[in-house]
What does this fold into?
Amino acid sequence: MSLCNMAISELHELLRKKKISSLEITTQYLNRIKQTDDKINSFITVLEEDAVNHAIEADKIISKNDDFSALTGIPVGIKDLISTKDVRTTCGSKILHNYSPPYDATVIRKLKENNAVIVGKLNMDEFAMGSSTETSYFGATKNPWDTDRIPGGSSGGCASSVAARQCAASLGSDTGGSIRQPAACCGVVGFKPTYGRVSRFGLIAFASSLDQIGTFSIDTRDCAIMLNAVCGHDPADSTSAKLKVPDFTKALVNDVRGMRIGIPREYFIEGIDAEVLKAVNDSIELYRKLGATIVDIDLPHTKYAVAVYYIIATAEASSNLARYDGVKYGYRAKDANDLLDMYCKTRTQGFGAEVKRRIMLGTYVLSSGYYDAYYLRAQKVRTLITKDFRDAFEKCDVILTPTAPTAAFKIGEKTSDPLQMYLSDIFTISANLAGICGASIPCGFTSDGLPVGLQLLAKHFDESLIIQAAHTFEQNTDYHKKLPDLG
Amino acid sequence: MKITKEEVEYVAKLARMYLSKEEAKMFTGQLDKILDYINLLNELDVNDVQPTSQSVSKRNVLRKDTADNTFKKEESLKNAPSQDKGFFKVPKVIE
It folds into this structure.
């Protein structure tokens, strides 16, 4: 019996009936990683011994209780920018290749309190800057549906590992689409909660006003289980929201009758792949058939989102990444003449090209004489983009769009042209600027057999509505049940 | 040209990075193209618009100023590239 192909909810049921043990589940997943990871490179670090020990601990809890959390004994993976105590946390960068945090991120503490089994740390674009997981210091991750293609990014390892069933679910981060776009490329469910819904304490910062931790899973039920575990207020993160968190599994209702689904005309532009467009249009028709009300809406400032994002995100990154100087942790260059030379050599040797490019852009837009023209103007347009969503949510409950303009592209296809790479996030970036929640769910396949993602967005703290819409879609389709064949 | 090679070299200095001649040339071309794209924002009139620095508007979040458990010295130093007598060690700053 292959346990790896099961959903968390199914594994939990078997654990509850004492038909299997966490050790059996964990062993199967660890074997699966061994058999497949040389093909796709999802993991930077596999925690074999820790995982086995945690599985044994989980089995003890299960044997003593009939009522244990839905994640008890379930193997999960973690993007390698979420701090794990005494476990190497690299951000996919040479500059942190040897860094082991002295503390756990809040989300890791919560997973441990739920007795989840952490099987390893997942590959990513260096410092989460990318849309293809090609910029990792630890080598590119490959798409399990076609290993000549990218898995999306920056959370490429999170998406590929869940699609290839190397772990049951994973935690990633989304700054401009880094959960939703790879989820679309790999045919899994990716969820970016509202800014403030999940604590960022221990998430190594890229762009603090945009970063949000979220989940990858094989279906919406598992997504709800993961969200239940990690959401909630945290005094250690001043931007975390002091709001009661609903039980997201209560939103797993197969019904969209009367739900108003908004279709923004600005997202159906030239340049969308015809097969992606068809899958998305078919999804709209399905929702209509299921009783949802389809409404046309306008998000008039959509075309400015990528420009705003690449000013704000790089400005924040240039500030956040100033801390990597070779003094307290991480890589330090040898043979420095003096302190300043040590800083410069460390950063020159420690960062890859894309990170340097973004630090440069961010430093430039914040530099004296350019601040008003770039950064301040971008912050103002951010206000307009946020207002677009506020107005739109007067007319609809959920917004539906493609997650990305194309299915997964070929490895190396966009590496020489940064602007083309940036445009692959064109549909996901606005949600981060406005701070609203969003998900990508599988909604079809291209003729090459590549997954297509459907993006669902809802207003601040309305995650339950997305879960209801996504769950209803799943109950009436079977795209999420298809798995890639890695041999 | 939105940005010159000299400006790129100046920005690299501000960001504490060295660029090789090839990198300076490459970044100049790429940043020029990106800045050209970003100038799309100039077609908007934003004079009367308030800037957004954070999507969930909030007042300052304060806590009581009380001592809490923190890292032991060894934990703080365990990742240090170089340390000496309980301190982080760096190249000589003062002659």
Notes: Chain B has a mean pLDDT of 92. Residues 5-43 of chain B form a domain with the Histone, subunit A fold (CATH 1.10.20.60). The longest strand of chain B covers residues 83-84.
